[in-house]
């Protein structure tokens, strides 16, 4: 018996020594940009860190990456890069951009070993982001009919462009991507479908109820009046906090259009699950809302933009139609200096649906946002929690598996805002803030996509 114990002890000891040697060998493995790190950057970083995109520097080559090596190590160890803001306790998302611990360790070891280049022959083939569509080669590309000129020091501006499409029959979009022509000035873009029904309603004056007259226009920008009614807890108000009557499945909150796709810093293209697609009704036109903004710094020279939309069509009508829902609060008021002001909004589904994804939206004072489902039986579930919202990186959180919610389910969106001097991004902590298009105002929107069956009937 003692001999058996001694043999077992020796086997364990040798196993431990072997494991230590393997760990030591791993630590001694030479990590280079060409052999390992470039592949990680290409997979997880270069989509933004390439010339002409939103990142402040490129990671396409060793020469571009080397000066930032220590900063890159710090950001990936802290998990600040790549950006991913969702609390991992809630939801399982297919587009989770977080690096694996192995990749983090590889980048850290590369820096600790002197951030060496290695043999360039081992580099992977470079990606051509100037030509590459993230959705793959589109079946059709639609573009603004002409370039738009942004003058030096131009403030925030919303500009609308009509893009004609000549579809004689309904078309089904499997994937859609907006490609800004000039990312230096395009903050966001939203492609709406103006359907024949919506145009007819507009001409006849039978458009959806526009709600109370709380808005005014400053040039192309819509803003809520300072003296408009204040409703911070929109979830307890009629309409859920929205100023417009919403008709589920027909139009979005403005009563005139259906959202087709959108672009914002950090948002991925819209790629729908197999068997799901968005419908472009025959005879529709695209209205492209462009938000041109110089919030990253005043422009000191003329800029031009010509944005395009790439579409991939489903080969046949799908069994399920994708729709986009906007859950806003238009009536909130953030007091001067408030560092944790709460605002809510809600919406109740009128039919059984499948939730596909979520996209929180606020401006520079936004702190956090939470999506919750309150089911007809009273059960309450957190769907998404973004504890540190970042206006410069607006993620679309796409579920790995859709969530079935029955008719009568209520979605509650809760947001907090920091209008204090502690918020380094705050344009002015001395003023009360209301809803508005300008970046210096605020918004509170919980977007989500959902699917319903038999859309083609």
What percent of residues are in strands? 25-35%
In the residues, how many domains can be counted? Answer: 3
Give the number of DSSP strands: 21
What is the distance, rounded to the nearest whole angstrom, between the alpha carbons of the first and last residues?
Answer: 77 Å
Low-confidence stretches: 1-26, 249-256
Main sheet makeup: 9 strands, mixed
Overall mean confidence score, pLDDT: 87
The CATH architecture assignment of the largest domain turns out to be Sandwich
Order of helices and strands: HHHHHEEEEEHEEEEEEEEEEEEEEEE
CATH topology of the largest domain: Jelly Rolls
Backbone structural class: alpha+beta
Number of helices: 6
Q: How does the overall form come out from the CA principal axes?
A: globular
CATH class of the largest domain equals: Mainly Beta
Rg over C-alpha atoms, rounded to the nearest angstrom: 25 Å
Work out the helicity level: 10-25%
């Amino acid at each position: 018996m003692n001999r058996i114990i001694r043999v077992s002890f020796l086997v364990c000891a040798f196993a431990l020594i072997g494991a230590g040697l393997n760990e030591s060998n791993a630590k001694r493995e030479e990590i280079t940009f060409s052999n390992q790190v470039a592949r990680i950057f290409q997979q997880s970083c270069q989509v933004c860190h390439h010339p002409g995109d939103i990142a402040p520097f490129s990671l396409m080559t060793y020469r571009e990456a080397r000066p930032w090596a220590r900063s890159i190590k710090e950001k990936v160890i802290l998990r600040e890069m790549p950006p991913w803001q969702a609390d991992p306790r809630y939801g399982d998302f297919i587009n989770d951009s977080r690096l694996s611990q192995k990749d983090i360790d590889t980048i850290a070891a590369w820096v600790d070993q002197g951030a060496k280049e290695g043999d360039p022959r081992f580099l992977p083939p470079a990606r051509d982001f100037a030509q590459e569509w993230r959705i793959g080669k589109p079946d059709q590309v639609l573009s603004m009919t002409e370039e738009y000129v942004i003058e030096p020091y131009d403030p925030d501006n919303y500009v609308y462009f009509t893009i004609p499409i000549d579809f004689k029959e309904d078309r089904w979009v499997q994937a859609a991507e907006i490609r800004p022509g000039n990312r230096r000035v395009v903050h966001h873009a939203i492609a709406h479908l103006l359907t024949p029904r919506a145009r007819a309603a507009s001409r006849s004056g039978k458009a959806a109820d526009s709600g109370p007259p709380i808005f005014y226009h400053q040039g192309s920008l819509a803003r809520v009046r300072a003296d408009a009614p204040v409703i911070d807890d929109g979830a307890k108000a009629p309409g859920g906090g929205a100023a417009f009557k919403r008709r589920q499945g027909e139009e979005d909150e403005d009563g005139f259009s259906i959202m087709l796709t959108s672009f914002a810093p950090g948002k991925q293209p819209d790629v729908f699950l197999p068997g799901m697609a968005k419908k472009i009704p025959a005879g529709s036109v695209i209205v492209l809302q462009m938000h041109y903004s110089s919030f990253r710094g005043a422009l000191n020279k003329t800029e031009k933009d010509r944005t395009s939309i790439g579409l991939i069509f489903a080969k046949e009508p799908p069994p399920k139609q994708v729709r986009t829902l906007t859950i806003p609060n238009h009536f909130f008021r953030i007091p001067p200096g408030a560092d944790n002001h709460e605002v809510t909004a809600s919406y109740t589904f009128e039919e059984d649906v499948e939730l596909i994804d979520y996209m929180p939206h606020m401006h520079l004072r936004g702190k956090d946002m939470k999506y919750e489902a309150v089911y007809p039986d009273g059960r309450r579930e957190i769907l998404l929690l973004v504890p540190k919202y970042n206006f410069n990186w607006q993620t679309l959180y796409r579920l790995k598996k859709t969530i079935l919610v029955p008719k009568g389910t209520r979605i509650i969106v809760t947001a907090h805002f920091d209008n204090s001097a502690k918020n380094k991004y705050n344009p002015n902590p001395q003023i009360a803030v209301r809803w508005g298009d300008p970046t210096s105002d605020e918004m509170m929107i919980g977007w989500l996509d959902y699917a319903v069956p038999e859309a083609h009937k």
